[in-house]
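Known limitations

Structure tokens in this collection are predictions and should be treated as such. Users comparing against experimental data should check residue numbering before alignment. To illustrate the layout, the record for LacI family DNA-binding transcriptional regulator is reproduced below. The input appears on top and the generated tokens appear beneath it.
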Amino acid sequence: MNSSVTIEKVAQISGVSAKTVSRVLRHKGSGYSESTRAKVEAVAAQLGYSPNGSARALASSQSFLIALIFDNKNAGYVLELQLGAAHRCRQSGYHLVIKSVGDGVDAVERVRGLLDATRLHGAILAPPLCEDRAVVDLLVSRGVPCVRIAPSADRPSTQSIRIDDRGAARAATRHLLSLGHDRIAFIGGPARGPAAAERRAGFEEAIASSSRPVAAIIRLGDFTFKSGLDHGMELLGHDEGPTAIFAANDEMAFGVIAAANQVRLGIPHDVSVMGFDDSPAARVVRPQLTTVRQPVREMADAAVAQLLAEKAVSPTRLPMEPELVIRGSTGFARSVP
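Generated tokens:
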């Protein structure tokens, strides 16, 4: 970024007004053509211009700060949220504030402290914090627009972005069934997480609709590597263990893979392993992990876009499509020739 380049300079070279440059770079979608947008963005990029959020905040009553607020043990998931939100903030001349909070009353007090110290344009609540009614009520009472990522239901005065967790888990389980697995374990997430409940429901629906008898084994984890490892050791430590394990997120699936390695079981020859998220590490482990791709970065990017929309309608819901990504960690059951 070249701090000496002004918006007036970008406007002069682009052949448009400074107001138009401001609208283009803030992604205000009216009052200019697509060709104008492309020209302004190209000139701004060539000159290294980026809007100065602090200067604009001093010159107006508008805040240029957006907070990503979370209480989530899955570091990979949180990182993807940060990258997506930061990308859109950077494009739009806003600054991203990262805030990790605790459970219950502590979460409310920490969010209150953030609001007391910082004037926010809007806030993004990651799961499972998106279900904390006290936190949501506090944001609404302070007049801070809020977008909730993956909530279980819509709420007045908030917006939401979610995927079809249940449908995605159902499709993933059917993939295992199509490979002939008839002893399938599911390692779910924490009970308070809405996504965890939906993924378990999708798994159970697929098992119930199977045309042949299937033994379903349920374990509850906490979306961490350790819980996947612990449950994996327990499930795979005897001869009658499952032929496939579906973990409700990739971190737990990595733990299951580690457990299989410890008890000297081959993947997928002895046991198939499936995750959920398609985190970057899913393409690094060996074999590569079959998983459901959750567009986490895109969801966070879209959350910022909703907060910056000129005419936000509350509540609004933006669905995002998951995708089953089949890789080397799943294969035919041992009993299937």
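For this record: The longest strand covers residues 65-70. The radius of gyration is 23 Å. Please report discrepancies through the issue tracker.
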